[in-house]
Design goal:
Largest sheet: 7 strands, antiparallel
Helix content: 10-25%
Radius of gyration: 24 Å
Strand content: over 45%
Oligomer: single chain
Length: 140
């Protein structure tokens, strides 16, 4: 009985080792985008395939802005890095991480999304938001 048992164990080990492969993790289904800066008042950033538009709403203009880790010196101009995100499924974007002392919100639009910052307390506050933007589903 022992030889049969050891043969069965050896075969089981052989077949399990042969079919054992380390699975690759699935490719991320989205791209992450992080925007940060000093906000004093309220700002509105409109994201679409055509670019990013900034609308200053109240109090001081934003300062020390970064877009995906690079300085964004002029929020009136679409950052060069936006080209990487413009073809993604923008209306399905969502906030996955936010930091700041007041409101950060995202509203989907027909072809993109609007990002709102609203800093009500006195003085400027540091804000950072990470947005997950899904890749568009491939058509078959």
């Amino acid at each position: 009985m022992k030889p049969l048992l050891s043969t069965a164990c050896a075969l089981a080990l052989l077949f399990s080792a042969a079919s054992c492969t380390t699975p690759r993790p699935p490719a991320a289904a989205h791209e992450s985008l992080t925007i940060s800066g000093l906000i004093d008042g309220s700002e509105k950033f409109i994201f679409s395939p055509a670019g990013v538009q900034w609308a200053h709403l109240h109090w001081s203009e934003p300062d020390d802005m970064t877009f995906q880790g690079s300085h964004w010196y002029n929020p009136c101009k679409t950052p060069v890095q936006w080209a990487r995100y413009a073809a993604l499924d923008l209306p399905r974007a969502r906030i996955i991480k936010r930091q700041g002392r007041d409101l950060v919100a995202l509203e989907p639009t027909a072809d993109g999304f609007i990002l709102y910052f609203d800093d009500s307390p006195n003085g400027a506050g540091a804000y950072s938001v990470t947005i997950a933007i899904p890749r568009k589903a491939e058509r078959r």
